[in-house]
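Hi R.,

As promised on Friday, here is the backbone we talked about, encoded as structure tokens. Could you run it through your design pipeline when you get a chance and send me back a sequence?
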């Protein structure tokens, strides 16, 4: 009799553990909020405050200004946010709040040649 009771409770424990694991995996595998972010070399432009603001950071002490070019949802015109002092590292400027950012890229101003721009980053 004892083995039948332990057998049932053991199966119950395994069933409960399996259900708990399945629930934990489904909740744990939910995607984390990923902010939009673009790079050009070490310079970066990153969304924050639920992608309603943009921060552009000049991470290189090379005297080159850095620009974050961006589009917001429902807006077909580009906006520009400049970190003009080229001082790096960790030198950042931020935008005001607006509609959610849709796409972003970083450009580094080059003396006597075209600006070096990274790829566009799109909101997922």
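Update: got your reply. Pasting your designed sequence below so it's all in one thread:
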């Amino acid at each position: 009799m004892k083995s039948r009771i332990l057998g049932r409770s053991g199966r119950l424990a395994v069933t409960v553990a399996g259900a708990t694991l399945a629930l934990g995996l489904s909740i744990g595998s939910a995607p984390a909020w990923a902010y939009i972010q673009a790079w050009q070399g070490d310079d970066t432009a990153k969304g924050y405050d639920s992608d309603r603001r943009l921060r552009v950071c000049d991470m290189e002490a090379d005297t080159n200004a850095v620009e974050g070019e961006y589009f917001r949802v429902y807006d077909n015109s580009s906006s520009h946010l400049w970190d003009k002092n080229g001082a790096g590292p960790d030198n950042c400027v931020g935008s005001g709040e607006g509609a959610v950012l849709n796409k972003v890229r970083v450009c580094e101003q080059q003396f006597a040649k075209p600006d070096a721009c990274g790829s566009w980053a799109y909101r997922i």
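One thing I noticed while checking it: The first helix runs from residue 2 to 28.

Thanks again,
M.
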